[in-house]
Give the backbone structure.
Amino acid sequence: MKGRRLFTYSGGSVISNSEFIWMGMPNTIMKMFNKSIVFGLVGITVTDRYAGVCPIRGSSMSPTFNPSLESFTDDYVFLEKFCLDKYKFSHGDVVIFSDPTNYKERCVKRIVAMEGDYVSNVNGAVKVPEGHCWVEGDNSAFSSDSRTYGPIPLGLIRGRVTHVIWPPQRMKKVDRRIPQEGFAF
Amino acid sequence: MSLFQLWAFIVKEALDKSFLVAKFFCAVHVTDTYLCSTALVHGPSMLPTFNLTNEIVLLERISTQNGKAGPGDVVVLRSPENPRKFVTKRIIGTEGDNITYIVDPKNSDRTETIIVPKGHVWVQGDNIYNSYDSRNFGPVPYGLLQGKVFWRIWPAGVFGSIGRRPETVDPALKVVEQSNPS
């Protein structure tokens, strides 16, 4: 068991000035620093590759997330990143992706149509190109989504939402669901 | 030492070593994703900057994460048509730029002009005669950029930095492509 040997030196040997300064720094601070760096690295790796937690802002996905404006806190969701291995997504998945109009922002929407499907938009039927998907928010009136900026490349997706984990009374699994109005045909 | 003590010692050693390996793996992942990574480049679309044969390059991730990758930079990006494929192209213009490009240089001189939308970049290969790029799949959202290529490390003969302007394409390259059945 290592004791806190701060101001002693072994045997009768003479120590230099620099050694004395180093022995003055407590061992515990170095250990804490070390542990926090390791914790940070492991945390970043797990969040990037496997799963993470993320708050939802805005009401574009009401009532699935943030159903009312008066709730005390935003919904927090659990997202998984295993889907980024093969990029296999299906209709109805709720995904988080980089906003195509501003790469620094993230958006959360539901995939309504995949590549090859036809979507009826205000300008007529649009075919979703290869490697893209059509996303829409559950709250159509307040959502800026593929109806505004077109289909998004699958490469922008950063994770798939599986559960709501906060607040406790709204904890639930997020299901794959096609909106009743059924756009894809 | 009793059998139990020996067994406990072995298990503890194994756990320590595996934690060390896990920590090393996390450090490698963080460096690879946020600092600097490597990529294999092949194909004719970036001649003469990159050769037909495989080349290994270093790419740095800091420019693309901070929005500093601009026209003239060679970048690696996820293909908009297949998210599991990475392509290497040069950025020609960013959002708001007016781009005039030759649609199909092998067959005609027809040009088109486009304004790059917000949040997107226009990428083209240096070898416009044989490159599948923004002229085919349109402007690319900035979020697809993976990193900026800044150094070549293999083969040893081409070790060195990448220029910001495409080296002039020799019209004779058109002949090389036709005689190469690929």
Remarks:
- Chain A touches chain B at residues 38, 41-42, 44-45, 48-49, 86-87, 97-104, 129-132, 152-157 (CB under 8 Å).
- Chain A has three helices and ten strands.
